[in-house]
Amino acid sequence: MMKLVRRMKAFFAPAGCTDVQLGVTVSTASLSAMSPPACPPLGSSAEPLRNRYMTYIAQAERLAIPLVDQALRETGQHLARDLLAKAMDLGSSKAQEFSPDIYWLVQSAALASLYADGPQSNEFAAYREHVHYYKDMAPTTARVWAFDLYVIARLPEDPARDEALLARLASFVREPNEPVPQAADIDELLLYIPRLYPDGVAIKTYEVREGTYWPDYDAAVVGFYKLLAKECWEDVQYNLHGAGTMLKSPAYIAQANLAEIQSMLTWCTRGERFCDGHWGAMIEQGSVLQILQRLAVLRAQM
Predict the structure, then answer these.
(1) What backbone phi and psi angles, to 5 degrees, belong to 106?
(2) d(C-alpha 253, C-alpha 242), whole Å
(3) Which residues make beta-bridge pairs with 207?
(4) Any idea what DSSP says for residue 237?
(5) Burial (CB count <10 Å: 0-12, 13-18, 19+), residue 24
(6) Between the CA of residue 39 and those of 61, 107, 262, what are the distances in Å?
(7) DSSP-derived secondary structure letter, 214
(8) What's the CA gap between 57 and 36, in Å, rounded?
(9) Long-range contacts of 177-183 (CB under 8 A, 24+ apart)
């Protein structure tokens, strides 16, 4: 398998390509409802395995992991082995050694193991290592990122760790990035509260249309995130500043300053690059409303 990966790197990776750093502070509260990364249709020889995978995930994703049902666990473990074996078979074939199906089979094997063995198991760690060998290839970088986000969302919560980080973040006042949002910039965001949350309830943010894999967002959602693309709302160091952890704490959002709001809004915006549906999740689960309510308080103090 490692020989196969090295050959694929040589084929896909651009000259000078280096590892993409996938470390990220992620709000598990906002990602807990995330669907597993999609597996598109595969070639005829691999499609039966994909059908087994889709059936298994449809059962497993509703349950806590690692799965308690022993029969379902064993089904997932066998499936993971079969998926990885198929990827290796394709990689050893001269006609198929560069097939894009190989990555999807490897990722699907890891996700099957995630449910069957658990996110902190040695078995899953071995499958995840195979996925991570693809993180520096241009065609698969974002796919590996989405995979990692999904896995992180299923790691056990650590409230003590999060509380310590929030205490550290609150211990100093950080000035907002330049250009600083002005009253007009805040006002145009606040106009979206009734559009995104009529009567205080989030709208249905998107649909996935037949024959597609991606969200088709409501016009109000698109308009809101278009405003967030303005430079005054950007914090390029939003992960370093702990945006994901801030978003897990409504109490922290309620006392956030403008610099922290820049960080959190950047986190809300950037996530869609790596996980389809992230924009919608941030609105529907209330994070955007909490930020806008805090912005309204800060606007009144201007």
Answers:
(1) -65, -45
(2) 12
(3) 216
(4) T
(5) middle
(6) 15, 9, 34
(7) S
(8) 8
(9) 177/234, 177/235, 177/259, 177/262, 179/231, 179/232, 180/232, 180/258, 181/232, 181/233, 181/258, 181/262, 182/232, 183/299, 183/302
Q: With 0-12 CB in 10 A as exposed, 13-18 as middle and 19+ as buried, what is 202? A: middle
Using CA atoms, how far residue 97 sits from 13, 133, 231, in Å, is: 15, 16, 44
How far apart CA 234 and CA 177 sit, in angstroms, is: 8
Distance (Å, whole) CA 140 – CA 103: 8
CA-based nearest residue to 40, from 32, 26, 50: 50
Tens of pLDDT, residue by residue over 136-193, are 787 787 778 778 767 776 766 666 656 665 676 666 678 898 999 999 999 999 999 9
d(CA 86, CA 105) in angstroms, rounded, equals: 7
Task: Please state the rounded mean pLDDT for residues 228-256.
Answer: 88
The helix/strand/coil state of 147 is helix
pTM above 0.85, yes or no: no
Taking phi over 0 as left and psi of -120 to 50 as alpha, with beta for the rest, 249 belongs to: beta
**Among all chains, which residue has been given the structure tokens 């986000």?**
149
For residue 49, CA distances in Å to 70, 124, 145, 279 come to: 21, 19, 24, 31
Contact 176, 262 (CB under 8 A): yes
